[in-house]
Amino acid sequence: MAAAPEVVRLSELVRFEPRQCLAYTTAQHTRFTLYGGARGGGKSFFLRWLAIVLLAQWAAAGHVGVRVGVFCETFPALKDRQLSRARRGRVEERYPEWLGTWNVADSEFRLRPEYGGGTVCFRNLDDTGKYLSSEFAAVLVDELTRSSVHVIMQLLGSLRWPGIEHTPFVATTNPGSKGHAWVKDVFVDGAFELEETKNLREAFGADAFAFVRALVTDNPHNAASYAAMLAGLPDRLRRAYLHGDWDSFDGQAFTEWSRDVHVVPNDLHHLRDAQWLAGLDWGYRKGAYVLCAVLPDRIEVVADLPFSQLYAKPAAKAIMHVTRHLPRPAMILYDDQMNQQTGAERLIDAFAAGLHEQLRDGAPALVPGAKGPGSRASKYALLHELLAWGPRAPDGTVPPWCAPQLVVQQRARYCVRSLPALQVDPDRPDEDVDTDGDDHAYDALMNVAVHVGPRSRLRALPASSVDRHPGVDPQKKRRRRAARPQAPDAHQGRDGLRVPRDAREFHEVTE
């Protein structure tokens, strides 16, 4: 065993980079801290050594034998990202032998008595029930987005230690995976708008949560070629891995999504001639209602409402009450699982009764959404088609004939948050979204989209740019079209983009 130095300075033992220092300082004053974003920023290193720093500080304050938990989603992930590096990694990564001893069987590292005797407990989150009687003065979670919010809430019951008032929860992560939506909602956006995150705000307050963005430049040990490699990735992955963009990540189901293209201002005036339809994805534990304006050229999501812990009849009344200031849909397209018998009546009959109690004779018609063999794959392909757009004009705007067939108003916050956060199904990446994620808004919306089908995308071709037949003269000879000096290319629009002649040529122009 290497001899212990006579004087141990934490600043020399733990060499945090400036942004890691910011994350550490934030954790000192905030109950919940997320250090996340780009890949290669030294996030796992930060978490592993933060455990040592906290134990040393508490030992200096007289708290000995304290336990801190470092968690990963599975034991293989724990071994790869934490244990192997803490025991046998590079010199600057691993815990030195003079600092403490390993209990390999229990995946624990215990500091020597002269340093407080605290323990870093490396644990996995496959079954959080086994920690119900455990106590940790700090809970440190690596790759937070790989866990659901319910797993984390269960873990908070073990975040306590006698005599220590500030017991921090600190996590690191990259964008993506099944917990992307709730992590972004809580830490990145600070909105707490998802049904499962509202309890966190009510219990702790929004000020208890802080976010420190991680960058690839945070880690000086990265080779220059690593950053260059990230910079050379396709746009979506580059934004996620290099810049830590939370609207783009690996495994994203609908990579067409762009906030500045698909999210539009709240406005009802231009929708006076729209057909109003709504989609419903039922679930007692969680469901969603989505109100849409259907136009010849697009579907515009105007509002949405997630709900939970409601039976069918009160759910119907609540939906109509909350959306009473918006246009009433002519029909609600629902998932046919509501036709199942539950007790004395079907779910759909109880929902219909709630509508009629709230609206009397003005209740919307209830129509089952299309469903059958291959319907999941059909929905998945259709939404890709509806979200597709581009290319942009030279000034950065999207020409009307290249605009998407689906847009979402800002007030439909559930769709704005959950649609871009959907993951591909790992078993069927070309056919469906991962149903372990938050797909309720998606299912409700697609009940409407499948019913009305794709919209026309050729609505706004400039009239002066349309290639018209010049006609014939009385002698049956084709007339020549007059020269147009202002447009050397016969298919060159006034904005500099080539304009498609017809639908057959459209894909050649946009691809």
Q: What is the topological layout?
A:
Elements: H1 10-13, H2 18-29, E1 32-37, H3 43-60, E2 67-72, H4 75-88, E3 100-103, E4 108-111, E5 119-124, E6 138-142, H5 149-156, E7 169-173, H6 180-188, H7 198-204, E8 209-214, H8 224-231, H9 235-241, H10 259-262, E9 263-264, E10 275-281, E11 287-294, E12 299-307, H11 312-322, E13 331-334, E14 341-342, E15 345-346, H12 347-359, E16 365-368, H13 375-387, E17 406-409, H14 413-418, H15 440-452, H16 503-510
Parallel strand pairs: 1-7, 1-8, 2-5, 2-6, 6-7, 9-17, 10-13, 12-17, 13-16
Antiparallel strand pairs: 3-4, 4-5, 10-11, 11-12, 14-15
Describe the structure.
The structure is a single chain. With 511 residues, this protein is an alpha/beta fold. It contains 16 helices and 17 strands. A hairpin with a 4-residue loop joins strand 11 and strand 12. The longest helix is centred in the first third of the chain and has 18 residues. The protein is elongated and about 80 Å long. It starts with 9 loop residues before the first helix and ends with a helix.
List keywords for this structure.
511 residues, alpha/beta, eight-stranded mixed β-sheet, seven-stranded mixed β-sheet, 30% helix
